[in-house]
Specification:
eight-stranded mixed β-sheet, globular, single chain, alpha/beta, 293 residues, 17% strand
């Protein structure tokens, strides 16, 4: 059974979530930029069957969560929301959550635990993200997100065609129900992505200096990660190369690493079965004592 939840973020912003499983150690799942909590549905169901309580959150400006009036969508802003949500979960369940963060969600996790509020999490799983990434691959993702941001789509099928052209290696799903949850109807009858356009505008406006500063913050935060860490990379990742993995392992020597063969940056979407198997294996090795608050 899925239970709807609501949290309060760092700016008083409402954050919407789904919980899979009422009992067990809490696991918080944060999607990547431009996605919604529904990207984790299959993983959430599997985690609940494995005995965990999985909370899949729409991050600020995404899905049904609030678009923040301030327009603050830096990595630190997402990290600040994470600190608030983790604190709430810890108070409710008596133990700190494990964070599973894909791309943007993983960066929020690095900053939350390594810089903003160490001790907020019990473990951290980074899904195809490291402090430094391939800028060419990142630009390609931003370009895809921007391409139909203004005009939108006439139908869900049109959006599916755009994704198929962008991800030719991924089989087209038989049902478009999941994709429909990532689109929102607008007043002109068009369908647009279910996120605040200012989120991607901020990515466009970042100059080289801003990107370098963000890398420096993330690298410094990664050096301070003392909790159990798992890095999961897509074997065909557009963002994270083997060199990036080696650099991360030098920053976080105790981190474990799993390479998911034939998966791109969207690891959970490309090979959800293999990804979730690796995830459950890692979670089951963790000790989950009650957290001192």
């Amino acid at each position: 059974m899925v239970k709807a939840l609501s949290f309060t973020g760092a700016e008083g912003n409402r954050l919407v979530a789904d919980r899979f499983g009422e009992e067990g150690a809490p696991v918080l799942l944060l999607h990547g930029g431009g996605q919604t909590r529904h990207a984790w549905a299959g993983t959430g169901e599997r985690l609940a069957r494995a005995g965990f309580s999985a909370v899949c959150l729409d991050q600020r400006g995404h899905g049904e969560s609030d678009w923040v009036p301030s327009g603050n969508y830096t990595f630190l802003d997402f990290g600040r929301d994470l600190v608030r949500v983790a604190s709430t979960l810890t108070a409710e369940q008596g133990r700190r959550p494990v964070l599973i963060g894909a791309s943007l969600g993983g960066l929020a996790g690095i900053l939350a635990e390594g810089h903003l509020a160490p001790g907020s999490l019990s473990a951290l799983v980074l899904v195809d993200i490291t402090p430094r990434v391939d800028l060419g691959g990142a630009s390609k993702i931003v370009e895809f997100m921007s391409a139909n941001m203004t005009d939108g789509f006439a139908s869900v099928e049109d959006a599916a065609d755009a994704i198929a052209a962008y991800l030719p290696h991924r089989p087209r799903p038989a049902s478009l129900e999941g994709l429909a949850k990532n689109l929102r109807p607008t007043a002109d009858g068009r369908l647009r992505w279910h996120w605040d356009p200012r989120f991607i505008s901020a990515r466009h406006s970042d100059g080289d200096v801003a990107r370098a500063m963000a890398e420096d913050e993330l690298i410094a935060a990664a050096r301070h990660l003392a909790l159990p860490v798992l890095l999961v990379r897509g074997g065909r990742s557009e963002l994270v190369s083997e060199a990036h993995v080696e650099e991360f392992q030098s920053l976080v020597p105790h981190a474990r690493f799993v390479d998911v063969e034939a998966a791109g940056h969207m690891v959970a979407g490309d090979r959800n079965d293999v990804f979730t198997d690796a995830l459950v294996d890692f979670l089951e090795t963790l000790e989950a004592p009650a957290a001192p608050v």
